[in-house]
Amino acid sequence: MAHSQDKSSALGQGVVIFVYLTVLTIIEYFVAVSFNATSLLIVVAIIKAALVMYYYMHIYKLNEADHGDEHSYAYKTGTNRLGLWLFLLSDGFVFAGLLVMRANLLGLTRPHLNQFLGLAVTAVLLISSFYMNRGETAMKYGDVKGFMRNTIITFVLGLGFLLGVVLVEWRMAAHEGLVASFGNPASGPLGGVFYMMTGMHAFHVFTGLIFLAVVWNNARKGVYTAEQHWGVEAAAVYWHFVDLVWIFFYPALYLIGTAVQ
Amino acid sequence: MKGFFSSALARGLFWQVIGTLVGAGLVTGIRALMGLSATDTFFFTEPAWVLGGFIGALSFLVGSGVTGDWIKWARGIDTPDHHEDHHTGWEKFVNVSLDHKVIGIQYTLVALVLISIGGLFALIFRTELAASELQFLTTDMKLFGQNGPQLYNTLMSLHGMVMIVSILLGIAGIINYVVPLLLGAQDMAFPRLNAFSFWIAVPAAVLLLSSLFLGGFDTGWTGYPPLSARAPVGMQMFFLGVFVAGWSSILGALNVLVTVVRMRAKGMTAMRMPIFVWASIATSLIALTATQFIGLAFQLVMFQRLFGMGFFDPAKGGNPVLFQHLFWFYSHPAVYVFILPGLGVISELLPVFVRKPLYGYRWIAMSSLGIALVGFVVWAHHMFTSGMNEYLRVPFMYSTLLVAVPTGVKFFSWVATLWKGKISTPTPMLFVLGGIVVFLMGGLSGPPNATVSTDLHLHDTYFIVGHFHDTIFGGFVFPFFAAIYYWFPKATGRKMNETLGKIHFWLMTPSFFVLTFGMMYIGLIGMRRRIADYDPALGIDTAHLILTISGFAIALSVLIFFYNFFVSIKNGEKAEGNLWNSRSPEWQVPSPMPVHNYDKPFEVVGEPYDYGLKDAGFVKFIEEPAKGKH
After folding, report:
1. In 3-state terms, chain B is what percent helix, strand and coil (to 5)?
2. Nearest residue on chain A to B75, judged by CA atoms?
């Protein structure tokens, strides 16, 4: 009985955090369209990032002391967890470098983009993160079926984000005059920054989708249990990391500064 | 020979060639369908070479089999924790092994190969510089689609980057071999990632060197746009090679950090870790994070060339100075990546040969971290003449001068450790002492470059070249040789020849001083760096001739080292015990060590460097047999 109560409270926490993130995203959007408040947007992004890192990515688990045998699964998972987070730290520097590039080349201007589409893909990615959290929680309580169901939803939403950016947004941006074209002399930093940032992020979404497909398939084969599912945890943390990056990239590309063509 | 052709190395190289052809062929086919030109000066077009090079590197990794276990895991197949290694003798080193000791030696061997190649490049252009006017790299000669001066530029640029990659592999070699032994671990935290980090460096080196044959490039190792945006295809291979090598460095650093945090022996608290471990942490923190910036900077130039995105093209509204910021944000801390392990080796070995405790252990440990952290905020001192905002100059000048403080802490500790010690000078100790003196010269010639008023004159002169070689020889090359002479018996059970080692040292050190002081001297007279020729009116022909001769003397000393190295593997004097009389755990057991290192785990019961104090042990082996499966 206690077991199912734990599970439902863990799922409930996921819902609450999702509501917070949604509200903050809406605030962010309306702040941006109503008045010019760059620093406020940065603060909101940092709050969203902190929520994701703590409640969805469980960064505090790095601090969990683990006792016992060095060859136990629990101890190895602790080691793997540290390795994964160091990898994310390193990867984070790529995205930080891209933000530096954006600040240097564009300053307080931004490309002219379709605001509705931007908000839509952002929402899709956020919802996918929510389902990823549900999937991981299900696995934590040994519910393999629930994990697989939620992972499929995550995968579909992630694929939707990827196609939305690469097929729809990139084409529309091209119509707006943002051309990263082959040798087009008119293509300035606006297009270069937009395609480089969304492209690097899309590449990470793509690798995340492969990762999700791999753990889904392994779950189907019965590789994971409630006690031993490091692969699932790693895929979930990586997926949330991709969302985390977008939390900063969305305002950087769509909201901060004034749109120029 | 049969063993070689079926080795992972040969398979990897074979698949790299196939992968390159497939990738390049794909692009060529698409271009042909689109009606674009399908071939160019170097047969394939530039986009074809880039995609081909990238797919070639991936094919190497899959073909060599280093990713085999990961592919199995992805398919849900479990693999044993450790694999039995069937290979013996030299075949162990050309095949995939998960043993950190084998990987450490693999790294070291590739580093030595690259040092030889980079050194050979230097000898070629140093010979050209021996007299003013162009002697053999003339405008009439043609090689690999380049004339003499172009070839000079390519060799000069490649000398820089090949040496940098060899240094990264060299420190990775020492760290890989030594750190798990010092910690009492059975292996690195992620043995497969460790093997991957090594093997990815091999295709990277191939890509880097292939730039010589694809038109070369003339930007120097820095690859600044706009010049790098219009150099021949070789430029792209250079960028790609560095990008791939960067992943070796990043993933290796990640592994070191996790190993240190998770795999220490019982009782080894932070302040009882051997000092080399602290140096490895500091260097890994930089390599893990900052390396991404050089990867990004090079990637952006690659994309600018391939897709016309004008990041660094002022004509399109881009900013070339941005490249320099991104580039130096890694490339300055990178020199601390090179030297911190070397300085760690000095601190580690000095007490052994002085028979005294290391002076100020905590201060040295913290000074490594201090150098690493300050290193993150000094990058723009390379850009005083670049046209960046002038108000940035002064803060970067002061932050750079601040580096002297933690470095000074190290010198103070070394001198205090030497003070009144019972100094003995076998070959490793000679190189330690040589490293200290040479690094001091590098350190003292640094502040004139850090100070804006003097740097405006010294920038891009040979003075900088002299300073840089002093820091890198003192911070890496001398300690690297010291480490090889010191740990060679641990790896092979035999000792390197002492007489040849001493000849190596006494030939290399004076020649090196002549070389670098000569470089600084001609730099002050007006010799510029990176230029194939100079005006006879400068009156530095004789100085250049002497520099060239000392360059060849260094090469000769390194040849003696190589002879010593390879002969001693088979015929060196047997040395299976604690021949340096060290307190360090790896010397308390016979050499060479078995696959999983220590038969019995040990517990740390004292301070690591209490030499000369009675009954002060560092480690105690736990007598009961080790628990758990391997």
Report:
1. 70, 5, 30
2. A218
User: Looking at residue B629, what is its pLDDT?
Assistant: 43
**Peptide linkage before B226 cis (omega within 30 of 0):** yes
| Residue B377: inside a domain | no
pLDDT at residue A182 in the model: 43
CA distance B490 to B590: 8
Measured between CB atoms, which of A82, A104, A223 is closest to B319?
A104
> In CATH, what is the architecture of A2-260?
Up-down Bundle (1.20)
**CB-CB contact of B122 with B185 (8 Å):** no
What residue segments make up the domains of chain A, in order of their start? 2-260
Chain B residues with a Cβ under 8 Å from any Cβ in chain A: 73-76, 81, 189-190, 193, 250, 254-255, 257-258, 261-263, 288-293, 295-297, 300, 303-304, 307-311, 316-319, 322, 325-326, 329, 627-629
How far off is chain A from B333, nearest CA to CA, in Å?
14
Instruction: Map B316-378 to HEC letters.
Output: HCCCHHHHHHHHHHHHHHHHHHHHHHHHHHHHHHHHHHHCCCCCCHHHHHHHHHHHHHHHHHC
The ipTM is 0.94
pLDDT tens digits for range B169-199: 999 999 999 999 999 999 999 999 999 999 9
Ramachandran angles phi, psi of B389, nearest 5°: -55, 135
In this structure, the dihedral spanned by the alpha carbons of residues A226, A227, A231 and A233, taken in order and rounded to 10 degrees, is: 80
| Single pTM value for the model | 0.94
Question: Which of B165, B161, B166, B129 is closest to B148 using CA atoms?
Answer: B129
Taking only the tens place, the pLDDT of each residue in B126-156 is: 999 999 999 999 889 998 889 999 999 999 9
Does any domain span residue B105? no
- pLDDT score of B301: 95
- B45 lies in which domain range? 1-77
B59 belongs to a structural domain:
yes
Q: Please count the structural domains in chain B.
A: 1
- Report the 10 Å Cβ neighbour count for B319: 18
Give a yes or no: residue B606 inside a domain.
no
